């Protein structure tokens, strides 16, 4: 077997069949069409390109792409599926094949697009010097900046209990402005637990990031056994929800899992403000309802998750509760948690009120 690894050094992109992948923008293109990829999806593609002659098993992809983060074969399959769909949106040819018993392999030839070799030396030297200066400035900033974590006891997070539990920046005109690097908001309040009841979540969001990013998360998870709680998040630009009642495997795709993903058709990662909401009536077959800008978007069946969602973890805005991952890059407005199912008219009314929070005038780290 050919074990050579293809080097992408000095490349600005490459073709996989008739589809061009831009290393700078992490975008697939063909003719006038384009498909942006998340960091994780693009890393997966790069790994397949670098090992284009060697099928890679799911376990090998876990080691090379996820680099030590605990994940499972089903997550690899899901990411392969996302990458296949991106190619299929541009070209009807098969681009990734699964060789039984061996692993995943690119199905189309790879051609590298090299940087112009006539590049003069002095512009290159100047670029390197500027990069070194930038790294020095960044390192200086990093050394002097502690991670920005908002906690309720710091009095920058306002928590109000009434008909709903609201979480908002104490400054009435500021959203939670998160950098996607080390910012998140954390709140401890027993009213944020759901138990076995119905509930609704509602807020405004603004982001252009792809990948998986948390809006609200209150789950216990150890990446080994049971998961318990709820998460409202964005997955490759689309709103999604996870319900976990602590009975079964950590991998949501497995038949005996303790959690279920519900992926809506509501795309929000376009850099614009969007009003987003989800209501969960746990006894109805179409009890999960996603709303985008006041309008019903999609519905799902939550009846398979009747156990308690309560746990001892804090609620986090912009990060997973149990790990510092899934960090949100963008802005999140006031969040409302209702211990009941909101009606469509109530959600439309809240959307009609508009968003009074933003990130203008905030510091370099945003409104926190």
Automatic annotation (TrEMBL):
Keywords: Disulfide bond, DNA-binding, Membrane, Signal, Transmembrane, Transmembrane helix. Residues 189-359 form the Laminin G domain. Residues 11-108 form the OmpR/PhoB-type domain. Residues 11-108 bind DNA. One of its GO terms (biological process) is regulation of DNA-templated transcription. It comes from the Bacteria. InterPro entries: ConA-like_dom_sf, LamG-like, Laminin_G, OmpR/PhoB-type_DNA-bd, Sig_transdc_resp-reg_C-effctor, WH-like_DNA-bd_sf. One of its GO terms (molecular function) is DNA binding. The chain crosses the membrane at residues 121-143. Pfam families: Laminin_G_3 (PF13385), Trans_reg_C (PF00486). This is OmpR/PhoB-type domain-containing protein. The lineage of its organism: Bacteria, Pseudomonadati, Pseudomonadota, Gammaproteobacteria, Alteromonadales.
